[in-house]
Amino acid sequence: MSTGIPTAIEAPRFRALTSVRATGIVGIASGIILAAATFAAIFGPLLAPYDPELPNLSLAWIGPTGGHLLGFDVQGRDVLSRLLVGAQTSMLGPLVVVIVSVVTGSLLAVVAAWRRGAADAAISSGLDILFAFPGILLAVLATAVFGAGLPAAAIALSLAYMPYVARVLRGAAYRERSQPYVAALEVQGASATSICLRHLIPNMLPLIVAQATILFGYAMVDLAAISFLGLGVQPPRPDWGVMISENQTGIVQGYPLPALSAGVCIVAVVIAVNVLGERLFEQAEAGRR
Amino acid sequence: MAEPGKAPVLQAAGLRKEFGELIAVDDVSFDLPSGRSLAIVGESGSGKTTIARMIVGLERPTSGTITACGHDRSQPAHSTRDRRQRGREVQIVFQDPYTSLDPRQNAEATIDEVLKLHHGWPADRRRARTAELIDLVGLDTRQSRALPRSLSGGQRQRIAIARALAAQPDILILDESVAALDVSIQAQVLNLLADIRDQTHVSYILISHDLAVVRQLTDEAIVLHRGKVVERGPTAQVLDDPQHPYTQRLRASVPRPGWKPRRRGQPGTGEENGVP
Amino acid sequence: MSDPAAVAALGSPGAAASAPLLEVAGLSVLLEINGAKRPVLRDVSLTVRPGEAVGLVGESGSGKSMTARAIDRLLPRRAEVTGSIRFGGEDVNQLTGAGLRRYRNKVAMIFQDPRAHTNPVRRIGDFMTEALQANLAVSAPEARRRAVDMLAQVGIDDGAKRLGQYPHQMSGGMLQRVMIAAALLTKPRLLLADEPTTALDVTTQAEVMAILDGLRREFGLAMLFITHDLDLAAAICDRTAVMYAGQIVEIRASALLHDDPLHPYTAALAAARPDIEQTAHRLRAIPGRPLSAFEAPSQECAFAPRCPYATDICRAEVPALARLDSGVSRCARAHELRGQLGGAPGG
Asked: Which of A199, A264, B188, C4 is close enough to C285 for a disulfide, judged by CB 3.0 to 4.6 Å?
C-alpha cells in the first residue's frame, strides 16, 4: 500500500565511520579526542616525560616553562605527566561501569520483556528499589565494605546505573518481542535463549550502544566526583577527578591551570563520547530499517 | 506430508477464548480435511486472529480442543522440543511483511536457521534445500542474499512463506497474508500459494476479510461474527448463496465492477440476497 | 505535446460545460531521498470540475498520495515543484498567509488513518470547532450546533455527547465519520480523500463510502478520491485517473474502465484482481512489481518492461498523454489496442 512519502527503496549503505562526508568535522574532532584519550590510557605511563607522583613542593604552582607544557600542580608535580598517567583510571573506571551496567541491564530488560507477567513485575520492582539509591550513597556504602579505591567506586556506580539501563531497554525489548518475526520463530520452536541472543539483542543494539555512550560520559563525571570526595581513586595516584580536587585551591589563588586542564580533559572526552554515540546510533538505525 | 482423502488434518471443537470479560472466541468448531483449504472469514473483532494464534500455540484456549495431525494440541507447548515438534505440523505466515522478518537477516540465513532447528543436516544439504525453497517461492539468488529493507512487500512475504515451508508443515495458516500487498503482487502470491499447494499437498487455513481472495484460494469457509460461527459450507456456496444476514451484508459490501455503496437499512444493503 | 491541462480536462461528459475547479498541469515533483533529488511525480495533469468526483487509482509508488499532498501544499519543504496547480483560477503554490488559510478552508483533506491525524488529548468537539472559530469567526455555541448537525448527517446521532469524547473512545469507523464531518464543516468546495477507508473493515467501508458519496452529492462538493481499489473508485467517482510510476496513464469515465480501458496497465490491474463470483484457474498476474517514479525507466514508457503489448515504439520515448475517444491515455499504442484490452473475465 502506498504510504505517501516514499520510504527508501534502495538500501541505505552503512557508511563507515571513517567516511568524512558522513561524520562531519565535529565527528572527526570527537574521534581524534577519543583516540588521544584511549592512547593516553594505554601508553600514558610510557609517554609521561616526568614522574607523576614524586612531589617537589619547591616547584608548586609554577606555570608552563621549558619542558613542562602545563606547569606544576599543588605538590610540584608535572601536570601533563599526571594527565597522561591519570588517563588510565579516568578512562578505565567509566569503561568498567558501562560494561557491567549495560550487560546486566540488557539481560534484565530482555528477561523481563520475554517472560512478561510476574517475572517482569518482580524485576521491575527490584529495579525500582535500586533506583532509590543515589550513586554517591552507594559509593559510600561500597567504600565501607570494600575500602576506598576505584573498584569500590566502580561497583557502586554499576549498581546505580543498571536499573536505568534496564528501564530504558525494557521498552525496546518489549517492542522487539512483540514483532511477528519473534512469534514466527517461537512457532518454529526456536529456544527462548537463542531468540533473545540472536534476534532480540542484535536488533536492540543501536539503542544499547547509544545508552552505553551516554552512560560513559555520566560515569566519567560521577567517578570524578567520587574521587573528588576522596572515596574513589586515592592520592597520590593521578586521576583527573582527583586532580580537580587536589588543585581546587589553585583556582582562587590564581593558578587555575592544573585543575582546569583536568576538567577540560573530562569535558572533552564526555562530549566526544556523546557525539560518537549519536553517530553510531544513527548509522546503526539506518542500517537496520 | 498429508495425502488427500485421509482423516481431517486439523480438528477444532468448542474453542473458546476469554480475555477477562471479553469473549473473543465462542464455541467455534471446524475441520480441515487433508489437502484441502479452509477460509476463516471475519472482520476485526470476529476472533479470527485469536483462533489462528490458538491453533499455532501462541495463545491458550480457555476451553475446547484442537487436534492436529492426530495429536492433541489443545494447550500450548510446554518445552522447546515440543514446540519444535508442533512446528513441523502447523506453521503460520503473518499479515505484515515489514515486521515478519528479522531486519538483520537475509533470506538465506532466515531459512537456514529454521532448517537447523528441524533437521540435523550438514551445511551443504541445508544450502541445497535453502536454494530449493528460494526457488519454490519465486525468488532469485540476489534477492535471497539481500536484507529485507531492500526488498518489496511481496518479496518479503515470499521469504516468510519459504521460512514456514522449511519446517515441512502439514498445515499452513495464512493470517491475512496477502492483505497488505499491492493488487498485482497479491495476484502473484495467490498464484504462488496455489502452486505450492499443488506441489506439496499442504493444507491451508486462510484467515481473511477479502471475499474475492477467499473465493480464489479455498474450498470450504466458515464465517465469524463477534466470536461465533454464523455460517459454514463450501466457499462457492457461502459466497453465492449466503444464508445468514451478516454473511449477506459482508457479501454486499465488497466492491466489484458495477457496485455501489448503500447505507444500512436501505434497499440493496444485503438484507436480501447479495447477488447484484 | 498538446496543452496538458486541456488534455486532462477531457474524458468527462459535457467537457465544454463549466470552468474547472482544480487544474493540475504538468506537475512534476522532486524529493530528496537518501541525499539525492529524485522524481516522485512526472508530468501529472488532471482537472476536477465543480461538483465532480474524480478517482485517483494506483499501487505503491504510483504517486497518488503525493499528488494529493502537492495539491494540499503538504510536501516537504525542500521538494522541487514544477508545473502548476490552480484552484479557482489561483496558483496554489504562490499562496501565503491569509490566502493559504482561505485555501485550506476551501480544500479539505481526509486521511487514511484518523488516529494519526487527531490529537489524542483533545476532545472531538474542540477539534471539530477549531477551524470554524479560528478561521471563520463563528461563535462557540454556533460552531457546536453546526458540529452536532454535521455529526447527525454522518450517522452519529448522539452528537452532543460525542463532542465531549476523546478519539480513543471511538472505533476506527466512527472516528473516520467524525473526520468527514469535520472536513465538511468549513463548507469546502473540494474534498481530497486519501484512502479514507483502507484501514476500515469492509462493512464499515461500505457504510462510510455511502455516507461520503451521499453528503458529497448533497453539498455539491467536488472530490478527488485516492485509492488502490479500482472498483471502489468507480463506485462513487464519475471519472477515474490511473497512475503508474508517478505519471497519469489513463483518465476515463469510471463506467468504461473495465470494458474499454485505454491503457494496458489499467486492463492488467483490473484483471489481476480475483473475482468474488468465480474461481479462476490462475490469476492474470503482471510480472515484476510496481515501480516508483525514480525507479522506472525515464527514456521510455514506464510500464514497457512489464507490458505484454510493448514494442519498439514504446521503448523509443516517453509517450505523451493523448486524447482518445472520451478519455485520455499515455499508451503509445492506444489506438491500435483499442477494443483488445478490456472485457477481462469477471470484469
From this structure: B188
Contact C40 A6 (CB under 8 A): yes
Give A49→chain B minimum CA distance, Å: 49
Is B43 in the C-facing interface, judged by CB distances under 8 Å?
Answer: yes
Domain membership of residue C344 (yes or no) is no
Domain count for chain C, please give it: 1
pLDDT in tens, chain B (276 residues): 445 556 899 999 999 999 999 999 999 999 999 999 999 999 988 999 999 999 999 999 999 999 999 999 999 998 999 999 999 999 999 999 999 999 999 999 999 999 999 988 999 999 999 999 999 999 999 999 999 998 999 999 999 999 999 999 999 999 999 999 999 999 999 999 999 999 998 999 999 999 999 999 999 999 999 999 999 999 999 999 999 999 999 999 999 888 899 887 655 444 333 333
Amino acid at B98: Y
Element of type H or E holding B27:
strand B22-32
Q: How far is A118 from chain C (nearest CA, A)?
A: 28
Q: How far apart are CA B213 and CA B224, in angstroms?
A: 16
What does each C-alpha distance from C199 to B120, B181, C214 come to in angstroms?
Answer: 44, 13, 21
Q: Considering the domain boundaries, does residue C338 fall inside one? A: no
Residue type, C121: V
In-domain check, residue C185: yes
Q: Which chain A residues touch B117 with a CB distance below 8 Å? A: 188-190
Question: In angstroms, what CA-CA distances link A249 with A58, A230, A239, A259, C21?
Answer: 17, 16, 17, 9, 78
Phi, psi of B59 (to 5 degrees): -140, 145
Range of the domain at C41: 4-121+166-329
Q: For residue B31, what is the enclosing H or E element? A: strand B22-32
Q: What CATH number has the domain bearing residue C215?
A: 3.40.50.300
What ipTM goes with this model?
0.88
CB contact (8 A) between residue B99 and residue A288 = no
* End-to-end Cα separation, chain B, in angstroms: 42
User: Within 10 Å of residue C159's Cβ, how many Cβ atoms?
Assistant: 22
Which of B102, B106, B175, B181 best tests the A interface by mutation, with the highest count of A CBs <10 A? B102
Helix or strand run (H / E) with residue C247: strand C247-253
Rounded to the nearest angstrom, the minimum Cα separation between A77 and chain B is: 53
Pairing of β B37-41 and β B203-208:
parallel
Largest CA distance in chain A: 79
Cβ of C286 and B184 within 8 Å?
A: yes
Instruction: Give residues 6 to 35 of B whose Cβ lies within 8 Å of C.
Output: none
Count chain B–chain C contacts defined by CB atoms under 8 A: 118
- Establish if C198 touches chain A: CB-CB under 8 angstroms: yes
User: Can you give the pTM of this predicted structure?
Assistant: 0.86
Nearest Cα to Cα of residue C150 among C159, C162, C137, C161: C159
C43 phi/psi in degrees, rounded to 5: 55, 55
Please tell me if residue C34 touches chain B, with a CB cutoff of 8 Å: no
Say if residue C130 is exposed, middle or buried (CB neighbours under 10 Å; 0-12, 13-18, 19+).
middle
Strand-pair partners of B229: B224
The residue of chain C nearest to residue A10, with distances taken between CA atoms, is C34
Buried b (16+ CB within 10 A) or exposed e, A239-257: bbbbbbbbbeebeeeebeb
In a domain, C255, yes or no: yes
- Note whether C33 contacts B: Cβ–Cβ < 8 A: no
Contact C214 B263 (CB under 8 A): yes
